[in-house]
């Protein structure tokens, strides 16, 4: 009799586990991935790229004025346009998929620290090819940072550089950098709008090569490697054991590294919530996907946990001084390191809890040892 009772219990447990798995698979299958892909493409990705393209146009316009008259006033305007475009870049940097992946947009637009010796050498010789992969660390926003913020201790000293014997060569190099950025970006926008949008939205399955799985991987990879590590962890010395302030984004401006980080953090959270670019409206998203799956962690809604941690990290970062001052003036930069910890806490929430609920496999390897 005991054997029969034991057998019945085992069968009941097996049935329960099987039922749970079937329910989970059914929930994953029933969520309208195509609706989420449409929201991503039409309301977030393409509008963000278009806005970035417009910012680059404004940057080119302010440069044209500076090229005509290299005055302090025009340098100030040129720099302001650079900052505005750099902030907008944070809205599209995570979308390294499709045409952006094909041209390596992020690698061509924002590799830092920039190689100042290489830039100086190219300006002096007048011979360079910015299409070469070996020159990615001598162009993009970081190269412009050096050329409009790092050539002198103040604006007056920088203006002297733009009115000396190398003036024309320096201006020609800036123009080449801007042309490269503009051409690559316009190509990405054109392909998204002409063909890739349809391919992206139609690839709505649940596999490693489907659009959702691929973009979720790219999204988490961006957060972990470029936002968390690139903008904070590496300059802080988290992985090297010693601080590396020159590895900060926008090192020569010195005041905006934190602003760029916060803009990137906002972009990541907005994408998680499916927020339309430039409005308060939202659509199907990673957050709504988790809600449809009724995903709970430690008795609490996972969507809420993730958003709360985003908010906690933002609050911690907002309370800091500029990243450069935090790193250079504090030995060790304890407060910034504690803020980094709050940023780090989001990684397992996305990379473990979220993807597990969605049955998405991570296709990249964490080499940071953290």
Topology of helices and strands:
Elements lengths: L1 H29 L2 H36 L3 H18 L9 H5 L1 H5 L6 H10 L14 H10 L5 H7 L5 H36 L8 H26 L20 H16 L13 H7 L3 E2 L2 E2 H17 L4 H7 L4 H11 L1 H13 L12
Antiparallel strand pairs: 1-2
Helix pairs in contact: 2-3, 2-9, 3-7, 6-9, 7-9, 10-11, 10-15, 10-16, 11-13, 13-15, 13-16
Can you give a write-up of this model?
The structure is a single chain. By secondary structure, the protein is mostly helical. Helices cover 68% and strands 1% of the residues. It has 16 helices and two strands. The chain has a two-stranded antiparallel sheet. A hairpin with a 2-residue loop joins strand 1 and strand 2. The longest helix has 36 residues. The radius of gyration is 24 Å and the shape is globular.
